[in-house]
Amino acid sequence: MRFRLWFPFFVGAIVFLLYSCLNQSQKDERLARQACASCHLFPDPELLDKKAWADGVFPQMAFRMGMDYAPLSQLSEDDQNEVTKTLPPNPMVSKDEWEAIKRYYIDKAPDSLLAEVETISAQLTQFEPESRVFGEFPLLTFVKTDTIEHKIYVGSRLNKLYRLNDNLVPEDSFELSSPPSHIFFTKPDPVVSLMGIMDPNDQARGEISILHLNSKNGTRIIDSLKRPVHFELKDLNKDGLDDFVVCAFGNYSGALLAFKGIGNGKYERLFLQNLPGARRVIIRDFDGNGMDDILALMTQGDERIILLLNQGNFNFRISTLLRFPPVYGSSYFDVADFNNDGKFDILYTNGDNADYSMIRKPYHGVRVFFNSGSNDFKESWFYNMHGATQAAAQDFDGDGDLDIAAISFFPDFVKHPEQGFMYFENKDGKFTPQITNMASKGRWLTMEATDIDKDGDCDLILAALGFNDGVPAGLLDQWKKEKTSLLVLRNKHRP
To answer: Is 341 helix (H, G, I), strand (E, B) or coil?
Structure first.
């Protein structure tokens, strides 16, 4: 009995003594791990240099953690109302704790990151590149192929949608209410997502609309979306009605949403993830139960790839397949079977470098994760491609294995602007990079893998969005002069 009475005190005393024996650095680390892992994966200090932590990340985290609300005044009134809802009413840590967290990161962070760009000498041999110009200075938002009608659609930041023929010549254009981000081909008319405002914002001005090709009018079917960047259309509950899954990316707020079709063109809004940064979804039956599931990439803080297994009646069992540090800049993912074992593997890019630490990062790039069979994923390949934005896996050379094509929106524009595109040929499971100097003709935001000329192989179309942040004046002048909108890579392989 005496031992039982004294045991809790004894354990507490030991914990107190152990904590007291920690030096200041160890105490700071313990506090940082506790605070920083409460919202996302704990980021190691080595992921950024001292300046990036001090001048970029910490002012933003002070805002998000309720330590400093001053940045709120820099937002528009419409954004302020929405962003305020995402902020804690009181500071999440004390001032002393905040200073300890900052001290830990600044002390442990390197003075600079070792992120030298590797020179690639191998030139592109699989494709024949050609540049295409239409319109004024290129500000394109997506490129997508209607494989049934053999038309190519290209969206523009200037609230326009272009339809191109087989020769990639614009044959028609459509005026929209805001910049389009994605198109889904239904008959007789396609469905498009309109962002409302393309730049980072939290205003629910985005929408999903049917685009009537003959009249060139639109019919809004879903409204009040926060910067929708991607969506898919599927009958998720097998009731004969179309349902939508929408990536409302937002900024400080946003969500992964489902819209349940309830008839008469009406939809019920359901929140699958009430967090910003939903980037892309893939819908298919991943567990073989006859119901379509949802695989989604979430960014903007808690970066992860999640699987939502359909349990019926819009109930989903959610699991996290992969999780990444908040500074990774997750940008895109797709699925493919790289090792021919019948299980889906994951192709992933991270390189979004537009936020609070615009420095080259050695962990930016293209990755392949193998599936062990129980949805346990392990990284099998990585290539450091600075600012990687999107990737596609296809058997481009027709030798029976999957190759990879990738684009970057944030390459090293000073030394290696040609690395805005890379082709990785698969040779016995090893991916060898190739480049083309033609890739320096634009800043590539999006890419489409498609058989342009219907000759049985897969070609590529890269679409340019010529933002000038981080671009040398000489290169920007070249873009303004040449006005390259698309880089077309015609596959030389003949099946």
So the answer is: coil
